[in-house]
Amino acid sequence: MSPTITTDNPPPTDRRRERAALLLFVLVLVLGPLLALLCGCTVQGEYVKADRATYNAVAPRQARYIEADSSLTDEQRDQGLTTLKTWDLRLRKAEGK
Questions:
Q1: CA–CA separation, 87 and 39 (whole Å)
Q2: What is the mean pLDDT of residues 26-35?
Q3: Alpha carbon of 55 to those of 11, 20, 61, 65: distances in Å?
Q4: 72: which DSSP letter?
Q5: Distance in angstroms (rounded) separating the CA atoms of residues 51 and 94
Q6: Region 78-93: what's the mean pLDDT?
Q7: What whole-number percentage of the chain has pLDDT above 70?
Q8: N or C: which terminal CB in the chain sees fewer CB atoms within 10 Å?
């Protein structure tokens, strides 16, 4: 039977791996949010473009439907058209117009 040797100190290579893992964790923790902030500008711009394309495709048809639907009350018609107008206003603000 060979004796089992146990030590409280890990070998030097294990300590290096632990330090490297800790360093990587800290870098991700610190740099991750910074990179997200920097990339956020382009993501927001692409989102606004996509939302504008959706608005242009949906809003005219929806407005025609709201205006033509005789089963809607005046209040429902106003709410529907106001929703489309505020959607456009939010997009214009995001687009800098």
A1: 25
A2: 70
A3: 62, 49, 10, 15
A4: S
A5: 10
A6: 95
A7: 74
A8: N
Its pTM stands at 0.56
Cα–Cα distance between 66 and 60 in angstroms, integer? 10
Please tell me the total number of residues recorded for the chain in this structure.
Answer: 97
Contacts of 69 (CB under 8 A, 6+ apart): 77
Domain boundaries, the chain: 59-97
Cα 33 to Cα 25, 36, 40, 71, 86: the distances in Å are 13, 5, 10, 50, 32
Bin 14: left if φ > 0, else alpha if -120 < ψ < 50, else beta: alpha
Indicate the residue type of 96. G
Assign 15 a pLDDT band (cuts: 50, 70, 90): confident
